[in-house]
Design goal:
The complex is a heterodimer of chains A (380) and B (268). By secondary structure, chain A is an all-alpha fold. Chain A contains 17 helices and two strands. Chain A has a single domain, classed as ABC transporter involved in vitamin B12 uptake, BtuC (Orthogonal Bundle), CATH 1.10.3470. In chain A, strands 1-2 form a two-stranded antiparallel sheet. Chain B folds into two domains: 140 residues, P-loop containing nucleotide triphosphate hydrolases (Rossmann fold, 3-Layer(aba) Sandwich), CATH 3.40.50.300; 72 residues, no CATH class. Chain B is globular, with a radius of gyration of 19 Å. Chains A and B meet through helix 2, helix 12 and helix 13 of A and helix 2, strand 6, helix 3 and helix 4 of B.
Chain lengths: 380, 268
């Protein structure tokens, strides 16, 4: 007994657990995990900024980015290389990073909220709701010639309608899925997935019908590539449109990560441990819908990021949302920046919509992970 | 442990609970005092789990009132309740890869604000809770790799980390073998008489209930059929009327504890 009492908990944890650094406290783990991911994000940015019609050496790109964020590397700010990196390529990469962070964070939150690793803004129909909202706004309420999707240019004045449409669509569909999957105060997983499937096809049908009624083929093409998820031609305007809702919502979500941990182990458990379940669930649902809607409104329904990124990270660092959520934010950004670089380079000078790339990278990798862990798969 | 004690930890006054037009519980009045282990017994569906959930504030009360530390339960926030009452749920599937230490640290949640991380103080409390429940050696193990008895001890450790005054246990010995049943109830008994906690435990095994509990409450069809000492409650007549089984209580010649000879189902 005395030997058990004397041995420090930390040492025991390090010996027994299977996750990266799980013997350390929350804060040191958070710092280490986020630092590693931040380096990855920077590497992805450098890689992505060096790919394009003119290939720029990675070292020059890194120096240009560092110079841009205020670390003096003695780079000539009037040189073409610096201009290409910071004016032409960086805005798009920042949009990719923002959107990737948003989807991954929303995915991680929904997985905790619905207590299911399969929950993802795409799978449970939230993205589809946001998409329908946007398509409805574009086809019914906005003059087509005024459409930013077509000209890839600066945003017009009535543009608040698009995020508003996305948000309303996202909130309605997430509430609907949530209510449909509730059984006596608990989320029934099968009902959740079925509701998601049904909602996806109904919303998809509406979206298709609206598209078919649109006679402008350029608009149809633009909307289609946007529905799959595309970052083509997205500049600072788009970034500024979505940055505050996304950054503020992510910041708020990070305050709820301990509650999210408790929700994961069961709603009654959570409540008897002092979590106001009904209130917290509503907050988490609204925040994750807001994040999803903001991301969808600027980049379309890019799938798989919200599913893959938290899932991979969970396999490495474990289920503690206090680390998983911040890690997903940075990891999601890195993942989408990388995917965007691939989308821009595989069939250059043409671009693939990045949503196709995330599905092509994400799907098989996900299957590989499932296969590799098939013996020891745990829901969380 | 007498009714003359001026302030019970918890008191319920004629509480009712209805669900879909059916009375789950009717006119439940009881008190729980510091240092006693109250056993909740009764046939399946009698309302044991419901009563525990009402006391914990997980479900709303339809009529009557619950008083916790001389203050109405409905005036407490969810957080405040969790600092006084800890609930040890029935063992369900715990299919996540949290470590035992993480699970026990969750017991500190009601004491931490949204902006706080656990401090060394919280770590010491959880370590003490794990020592008390003999789970310290499991700290780094994943919860989904533990045996049933180990999980139950971890859940009790988590409850202790809440530093509660009242412990509610829902079938703490279900699905455990006899050794672990004795171990768990012995631990709870120890927590009440040595640490002065009040505890209410729903228990299926009547002989175990008689052995460990200070008082028993026999629920039947949503009402309190009888309450009192184990010897007062576990009589042939009460068990015939509630469980519908003919029994003959006797004192075990080896241990002196109350035992039951089960004779036959009730002959009407």
């Amino acid at each position: 007994m005395s030997s058990t009492a004397l041995s420090p908990v930390k040492g025991l944890a390090r010996r027994n657990s299977t996750f990266l650094l799980s013997g350390l406290g929350v804060l040191p783990r958070l710092v280490v995990v986020c630092s590693v991911l931040a380096v990855l994000l920077f590497a992805a940015m450098v890689f992505a900024a060096s790919t394009g019609p003119t290939t720029i050496p990675a070292a020059d790109v890194a120096n240009a980015i560092l110079q841009y964020i205020g670390i003096d590397r003695g780079v000539d700010v009037h040189a073409p290389v610096y201009r290409i990196v910071t004016v032409v390529r960086l805005p798009g990469l920042m949009v990719a990073a923002l959107v990737g962070a948003a989807f991954a964070c929303a995915g991680a939150t929904m997985q905790g909220l619905f207590r299911n690793p399969l929950a993802d803004p795409g799978i449970i129909g939230v993205s589809a709701g946001a998409s329908l909202g946007v398509v409805l706004v574009i086809t019914q309420f906005a003059a087509l010639d005024n459409l930013w999707l077509l000209n890839n240019g600066p945003l017009s004045n009535a543009l608040w309608r698009i995020p508003a449409g996305a948000f309303i669509g996202a909130v309605i569909s997430s509430t609907l899925v949530y209510v449909l999957s509730l059984q006596r105060g608990r989320v029934n997983i099968a009902a959740l997935l079925l509701a998601g499937i049904a909602l996806n096809s109904v919303l998809g049908a509406f979206t298709s019908a609206l598209l078919l009624r649109t006679s402008n083929y350029d608009a149809v093409h633009a909307i289609l590539s946007w529905l799959v998820g595309s970052l083509e031609g997205r500049g600072w305007d788009y970034f500024h449109l979505a940055k505050w809702p996304i950054i503020v919502s992510i910041g708020l979500l990070l305050l709820y990560t301990r509650d999210l941990n408790l929700l994961v182990i069961g709603e009654e458990n959570a409540q008897s441990l002092g979590v106001n379940v009904a209130q917290i669930r509503l907050v988490l649902l609204v925040l994750s819908s807001l994040i999803t809607a903001s991301a969808v409104s600027i980049a379309g329904a890019i799938g798989f990021v919200g599913l893959i990124v938290p899932h991979i990270l969970r396999l490495v660092i474990g289920p503690d949302n206090r680390i998983l959520l911040p890690a997903s934010v940075i990891g999601g950004a890195a993942f989408l920046v990388f995917a965007d670089a691939v989308a821009r380079s595989v069939i250059a000078p043409e671009q693939l919509p990045v949503g196709i790339v995330t599905a092509l990278i994400g799907g098989p990798f996900f299957l590989f992970l499932l296969w590799r862990n098939r013996r020891s798969i745990a829901a969380f | 442990m007498s009714d003359s004690d001026p302030s019970p930890l918890l008191k319920t006054d004629q509480i009712n609970c209805r669900l879909e037009g059916r009375d789950l519980l009717r006119d439940i009045s009881l008190s729980v005092f510091r240092g006693e282990l109250v056993g909740l017994i009764g046939p399946n569906g009698a309302g044991k789990t419901t009563l525990l959930k009402l006391i914990n504030g997980l479900w709303p009360v339809d009529r009557g009132r619950i008083t916790l530390l001389d203050k109405p339960l409905k005036h407490y926030s969810v957080r405040q309740v969790a600092r006084v009452i800890a609930h040890v749920p029935q063992i369900t599937a715990l299919d996540f890869s949290f470590t035992v230490q993480q699970i026990v640290l969750m017991g500190r949640n009601p004491h931490l604000s949204r902006f706080e991380l656990e401090t060394e103080h919280d770590r010491q409390i959880t370590e003490h809770a794990m020592q008390r429940t003999n789970t310290l050696h499991l700290a780094g193990r994943l919860i989904n790799t533990l045996s049933g008895g180990e999980r139950q001890r971890v859940l009790i450790a988590r409850a202790l980390a809440q530093e509660p005054q009242l412990l509610l246990l829902d079938e703490p010995t279900a699905n455990l073998d006899i050794q672990h049943q004795l171990e768990i109830l012995g631990l709870v008994c120890d927590l009440t008489c040595r640490d002065g906690l009040g505890a209410v435990a729903a228990v299926h095994d009547l002989e175990l209930a008689a052995r460990f509990c200070d008082r028993l409450i026999l629920l039947h069809q949503g009402i309190i059929h009888t309450m009192g000492t184990p010897a007062e409650v576990l009589t042939s007549e009460h068990l015939r009327l509630t469980y519908g089984v003919e029994t003959q209580p006797y004192a075990d010649p080896n241990t002196g504890y109350l035992r039951l000879s089960i004779l036959a189902p009730r002959k009407d």
